[in-house]
Amino acid sequence: MPPSPRLRALALAALGAAALAAAPAPAAAAGPIVIRFSHVVAVDTPKGQAAEHVRRRVAELTGGRARVEVFPNGTGYKDQEEIQALQLGAVDLLAPSLSKFGQLGLREFEAFDLPFLFDDEAALRRVTEGPVGRELLRRLDQKGIVGLAFWDSGFKSFSANRPLRSPEDFRGLRMRIQASGVIDAQMRALGALPQVLPFPSVFQALQAGVVDGTENPISNFWTQGMNRVQRHLTLTRHGYLGYVVIANRRFWDGLPRDVRAALEQALGEATALANRLARERAEADLEAVRRAGTTEVHVPTPAERRRFVQALRPVHQAMADRIGRDLLRDIYAATGFDPTAP
Ligand code: LMR
Q1: CA-CA distance, 112 to 51, in Å (whole number)?
Q2: What digits encode the pLDDT tens for the residues 261-274?
Q3: pTM (predicted TM-score)
Q4: DSSP string, 275-312
Q5: Ligand 1 centre from 268 Cα, in Å?
Q6: Ligand 1 atom 3, closest CA
Q7: Ligand 1 centroid vs 63 CA: distance in angstroms?
Q8: Rounded distance, CA 338 to CA 288, Å?
Q9: Among the atoms of ligand 1, which is closest to the Cα of residue 99?
């Protein structure tokens, strides 16, 4: 059973450092080792399916010695709360979006939110699978977190209840964002009013008119039913949404070696699955949105796209100190993006 909101609050309140120090390491516990994996999206998404894969494979590979319990859709913890829960040891595995690490003090992860940074998946991989990706995972150590893998969700597009053909169309729109300074700056550069909301609340906020629009990879847009409350979707693919799979360091180090090896293997397989599904679902879910007929899908013309790029390029300069200029230089070298182009 997923923890109730009350239990969640209690767990977070009760699990202080002292309690944590006294908690048994997983290896010492009797019965199967339970690995709790919480996430905020639907089961039928790249992340949801990858988490299910980890659950199945860990059971197989360990012959039942370890069991992964998955809490999807924010039924375990939501957004920022989940990282705090991981640090406290109330949950063992997470895959938060890269955008959510800035709040932990690791603002360099927000580099992935920079608009139009990646032309395609190959440019992205040069970052995540190269020295920058390794360095970012290493920086999680200082927070008591082990960074295990990058998983894709996909490229994001904007939606609202009015057509979004040019930057001017965003003026005054209240746009839901993740808690990222870079995404905040991106929305402000378009003249919109960014509003941070946890992911599991977005559908209701759109339905109630608390916010007017948002941005998502298509799989999140579709599986949350946002097509029922957003009449316009513009396929800008202006930004990337991806995840870091993370574990509590103490939990990870306390796992018996063979169980840790099984988990590593399952995660390796799940990485390939998540990334393949991210590609496939981008197309299949877009087709589903089109078929549903509730949202008009607009593909920007090259001239429209250029105007978005021009409007959002200054966000790179404005955010350079927040992210770190040295790191950004390395990222631009890998992706080929030129923040100074006219
Ligand atoms: C969001 O908050 O929009 C995303 O991070 C949700 C997710 O995990 O894909």
Answers
A1: 22
A2: 999 999 999 999 99
A3: 0.92
A4: HHHHHHHHHHHHHHHHHH-SSEEEPPPHHHHHHHHHHH
A5: 21
A6: 199
A7: 33
A8: 35
A9: 5
